[in-house]
């Protein structure tokens, strides 16, 4: 199976490196020729879960160089999905599958705009990966990856099983999910709690467990998200606070992706996370004051960067 991982961020680099080490035919795809050239020279440097530094030489190229693949994993930031979706037709072979493994809501819809829903899969990953620098990452916490066919997809359960096996073969914990939309929301419930609080307070995920006020806000955001999901007809498993606690424990040393974005001066995924909860809640007449406020604070934090002191 020929694989492409689109997006050389933390998750993209990790997946490409693990697949490569497992002997898969994989390429990392980027849209920036200058970065492609640098990553080709340097390889991908991974600090493993055991704390060992490894350099893994992964083939890296532009979409036109890599060409059609059987499986293309979209691992770009949610705010880059629309532009990434434009190169997907070049990367997906006849009968090939696109799998989004991104945070938040709205990615499936953006990808479907260019490649349709028939050969689409969605995935949700609860693992912790920190990007230290271009092509340099820390695999900071194990976590399960769920993969399934969303509404409108015609990818068969057998094909989903083959993709799940591929992930397992690369040493990742992976499970098929028939209710992948519910899994996306379960992850959203976690992200709307952990990501903005860790980004605003500039702390690793585990610190939230030691900060009672921050924890209270994180749980309140997660509870609101769960209520919106339920109002939208999705039944999510488990209690949001318990789920938050488990992910904070499993990824305690990890810097959330939103904290990494804020520290690097990049845009954040707030529009795909808390803003989605707030918008969908509003549309159903369900108040989401905590998600409203966190959305405003994160927008403000991004706007404030040029004025920051110290
Ligand atoms: O998805 C994540 C993120 O940082 O975006 C978690 C699971 C919270 C790990 O940090």
Describe the protein in words.
Helix 4 (81-91) runs parallel beside helix 5 (107-115). The chain is α/β, with parallel strands linked by helices and 310 residues long. It has helices at residues 10-21, 33-42, 63-66, 81-91, 107-115, 157-169, 180-201, 212-231, 240-250, 257-264, 274-283, 289-304; strands at residues 2-6, 25-29, 44-47, 53-56, 60-61, 69-74, 92-100, 120-125, 128-133, 136-141, 145-148, 174-176. It is globular. The protein contains 12 helices and 12 strands. 47% of the residues lie in helices and 19% in strands. The strands form 2 sheets. The protein has an 8-stranded mixed β-sheet, with helices on both faces. Strands 4-3-10-9 form a 4-stranded mixed β-sheet, with helices on one face. The termini are far apart. The longest helix has 22 residues, at 180-201. It folds into 2 domains: 2-178, Rossmann fold (3-Layer(aba) Sandwich); 181-303, Orthogonal Bundle (N-(1-d-carboxylethyl)-l-norvaline Dehydrogenase, domain 2). The model has no long low-confidence stretch (mean pLDDT 95). Bound molecules: ketopantoate (KPL). Ketopantoate is lined by residues 103, 126, 128, 190-191, 194-195, 205, 247, 251, 254, 256-257.
């Amino acid at each position: 199976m020929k694989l492409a991982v689109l997006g050389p961020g933390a998750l993209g680099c990790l997946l490409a490196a693990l697949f490569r080490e497992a002997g898969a035919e994989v390429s990392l795809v980027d849209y920036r020729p200058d970065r492609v050239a640098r990553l080709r020279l340097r390889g991908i440097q991974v600090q493993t879960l055991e704390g060992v530094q490894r350099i893994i030489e992964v083939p890296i190229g532009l979409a036109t160089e890599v060409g059609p693949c059987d499986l293309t994993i979209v691992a770009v930031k949610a705010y880059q999905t629309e532009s990434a979706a434009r190169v997907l037709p070049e990367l997906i072979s006849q009968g090939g599958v696109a799998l989004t493994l991104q945070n938040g809501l709205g990615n499936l819809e953006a990808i479907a705009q260019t490649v349709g829903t028939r050969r689409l899969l969605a995935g949700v990953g609860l693992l912790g990966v920190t990007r230290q620098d271009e092509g340099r990452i820390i695999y900071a916490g194990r976590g399960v990856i769920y993969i399934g066919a969303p509404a409108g997809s015609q990818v068969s359960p057998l094909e989903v099983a083959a993709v799940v096996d591929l992930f397992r073969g690369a040493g990742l914990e992976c499970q098929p999910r028939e209710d992948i939309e519910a899994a996306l929301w379960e992850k959203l419930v976690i992200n709307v709690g952990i990501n903005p609080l860790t980004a605003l307070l500039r702390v690793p995920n585990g610190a939230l467990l030691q900060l009672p006020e921050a924890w209270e806000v994180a749980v309140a955001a997660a509870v609101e998200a769960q209520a919106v999901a339920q109002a939208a007809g999705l039944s999510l498993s488990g209690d949001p606070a318990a789920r938050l606690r488990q992910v904070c424990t499993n990824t305690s040393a990890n810097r959330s992706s939103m904290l990494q974005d804020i520290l690097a001066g990049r845009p954040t995924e707030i529009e795909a996370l808390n803003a989605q909860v707030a918008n969908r809640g509003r549309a159903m007449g369900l108040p989401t004051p905590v998600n409203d406020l966190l959305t405003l604070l994160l927008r403000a934090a991004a706007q404030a960067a040029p004025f920051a002191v110290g």
